[in-house]
């Protein structure tokens, strides 16, 4: 799972895509269409899979953590 700031995605993804991993990245995958397109094309060239995650607030782990935190309010 790749979770870095948008400014770091271009650099990080170049390194990550060297490995035969399936990647789960948080949105957005870059600061511009151009950055995202470069990452996409590199993933195709290297035959890597990248999935973009959406709405972390609905992850089961996040929902459980929210319940735990609400106990202390």
Quick summary:
With 73 residues, the chain is an alpha+beta fold.
What does this structure look like?
There is one protein chain. This protein is of the alpha+beta class. Helix content is 45%, strand content 14%. Strands 1-2 form a two-stranded parallel ribbon. β1, α2 and β2 form a beta-alpha-beta unit. The radius of gyration is 15 Å and the shape is elongated. The relative contact order is 0.17.
Number of strands: 2
Order of strands across the main sheet? 1-2
Could you give a short account of the major beta sheet? Answer: 2 strands, parallel
First-residue to last-residue Cα separation = 31 Å
Low-confidence stretches: none
- Average pLDDT works out at 86
Gross morphology: elongated
Task: Provide the descriptors you would attach to this structure in a database record.
alpha+beta; 45% helix; single chain; elongated; two-stranded parallel ribbon; 73 residues
Task: Tell me the layout of helices and strands.
Layout: H1 9-16, E1 22-26, H2 33-45, E2 49-53, H3 60-71
Parallel strand pairs: 1-2
């Amino acid at each position: 799972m790749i979770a870095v700031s948008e400014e770091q995605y271009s650099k990080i993804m170049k390194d990550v895509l060297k490995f035969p991993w399936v990647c789960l990245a948080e949105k957005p995958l870059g600061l511009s269409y151009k950055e995202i397109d470069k990452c996409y094309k590199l993933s195709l060239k290297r035959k890597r899979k990248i999935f973009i995650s959406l709405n972390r607030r609905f992850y089961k782990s996040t929902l459980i953590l929210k319940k735990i935190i609400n106990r202390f309010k």
